[in-house]
Here is the input.
Amino acid sequence: MNNEEWSGIQYRFLESADLLEAFEQARIEHLGVSDEWTIAISSRTIFDLEVDDGNLADAQFVTVEVFDVSPDYSASDDSDPVALTDPLIGELAGTTGVDWERC
Here is the structure.
């Protein structure tokens, strides 16, 4: 599997979401790079998450890119990055009680 070819996946929260609070509630490790951008680690996979329309504390549109895949994820697993990004977004949305959709 060559994740270098994967592009970011865009998502929309149907209401504004406080992703900083969602990361804390879900106990997902993250490193804030700026008000709009963070690096998150979930299920031993590293994600690049950038808010497209505001900041992490008040987000509606985000782009998530798989930065590095867990060593547990093998070449025989689904090579679609959505298989990795959807669960992350679903968990963040679930902790904030906000519905979401992939754009």
User: Anything to note?
Assistant: The CA atoms of residues 72 and 94 lie 24 Å apart. The mean pLDDT is 90. The longest strand covers residues 59-68. Residues 82-96 form the longest helix (15 residues).
